[in-house]
Amino acid sequence: MSKISPEDFDKMVAENLEDITPGEYTISDVNPWSLPIGRITWGLILTTVTLSFLWLQYLLPAVGVMLMYLGFRTLRGENRWFRACWLISGLKLLWNSANLILSVTPYGFPESTQFTFGVVWLVIQLILFFAFRRALLRVFKKSGQSKPEHDPLLAAGIWTVAAFAVALSPFSQSWIAFIIMIIAYIIIVRALFSVGKELDKCGYEISAAPVRIRGGLISRIYAVLLILAVVGLCFFFNHPPLNVVPFAPAPESAAREHLASLGYPEAVLSDLADSDVALMEDAVCVETSYEILSFDSHREENRETDEGGGTYIRITEIPGNTKLQITTVYAEMPGRRAYVLHYFEWLDGAALWQDGITIWANSDEDLQVSGGRLLYEKGGAAYAASFPRLSAGVQTTYGFFGASESSQIKGAVSYPLGAERQRGYVLFSFVSNYDSDMWAVSSAINYAHMSNPIRIPYADTEQRILNGDFTFKDGFVQHASNYDSAAYREAEK
Amino acid sequence: MDEEMINMLRSRQEEGMALLRTNYGGLIRYIAGGILQSPEDTEECVSDICMLVWEKIGSYSAERGSVSAWLTALSRNAAINFLKRRRPHEELFDDYKGADSPEYELLRKEQAQRLKDVINLLDTRQRNLFFRKYYYLQSTARIAAELGTTERAVEGRLYRLRKKLQKALGGDLS
Q1: What is the pLDDT of residues A45-71, one digit of tens each?
Q2: Interchain CB contact of A313 with B (< 8 Å)
Q3: Which of A51, A219, A309, A390 has the fewest CB atoms below 10 angstroms from its CB?
């Protein structure tokens, strides 16, 4: 079989199409506006609606702004209004990317600026609708038609303002507002989809602008850069650096011996800094509680039969793969004071991506951190480091019963990659203003474990605990204990 | 609206032509412009096509397809004929190298039906590219601009499309 050139092959194929008519779908697809207007429409839809689950509030706008940019890029040469739309879409693309990237860092825009930015972007969105509308009117004029039958962009603009107003109103959390928003959204989407239909008669007049870089390549580069930036920054900011020093077990001292003689756990004691031990050298009584907790345990329900033939359901807690031992040691001091130590050690698992702790106690005075550090081993050497963040203060917490304020200690826990025997402690003092030697203290440590570094938006894990973001089913454990003063226990006998 | 336009054209009312130009002038100009690539030739050809519609409106049957489809086929063939008349020295279909080759005979005689079958095997994206290239005879630059991509990328897609067609139709490309 002889060979023919591609040019001749093309001619032969083209000639044989004389009696073939493209299908209706092909005829409606082959034009200069279907692809760009389709992209713009989907872009506007994806950037107008907000679905706050599965990271869709970030993914959909990120895709939407790129679609809009590519759509307007094709049309930018048609008239100056399309060019304005293209510039605005480029601005939106840059802003959305910058905002997304900043949101995974501690330098994201604070919540207080959301309203201002919301108003600014509402105005920009309306300008975009206006410019887009003017651009389409120009196309109608160019094709010799007076004006479009409908005005979908005007409708979309009005409903966007209405939806924004409802979102700001006191009824924004009500079902009525939700229904109004859904109706507004459906109307906006319908209006935007009808933009393409309006062009059926005049859109052939549109001339597409040539491009130097293909849209697919821009999209891929954009996606890869955005993912790399987001993931890279998540790794960077959720793996805080530690101020590390070599750790050597402290030599025996009278204070350590005294505490050991009172029952202070030796494994814990050997990890304490001399300065922390010195605070407790006058301790009169020590009491310890500990618990091994798992972040991925689950409950199993089994139907069983008792001796009488009745059935019942036995619920068994199945431990998970992660195991964190929390030890709380109360050291009672003279003068209605105590030092409370929360010590934690990873038995199985690791804290690599900024875990968080909060500590609460029913102290009559605001809690103050007396000491605390992280300890680990790596490459056969032992190290100690200060907490990446550790502070005490009056915190607002959000729980089942709403917001409340209390004095709490909060901190971040994170170790270097490859760190073994990860452990740490926080020591604080308790003061009872109760005018008696019979007093009691309750304290609890909350520990939230993050199994990966991806967090959008960025948030300090300890702050998320205070915000009530965790439940006992999702990487959150608590160890709570009480201590009654020696005099109290004596009186109770 | 289409029905009203067709009835007007059939009853030889001038308003029908006005409606044709208003509603389908863009489509006709788009198809002719893609083939002729010269604004002056395109305008002249559009006028010719409108006259052709006036003459051939009796052959239009709504049962066989939409007005758009009928006008698309009419415009395409009219623009090709216009091109043959206007630029007889340009090779379009006839007298190209290999006209006597077995592949040529294969394609000519083993019918458009086979080509139709092959077109049906293409996915939507490939089919649209196929029609842009072989039916609308659009330039690579125009296809690239309308698809928001580069000419190089379109050439790559056309190369793959050509290979696929050639494999399905038989024949060997040099």
Answers
A1: 888 777 777 788 899 999 999 999 999
A2: no
A3: A309
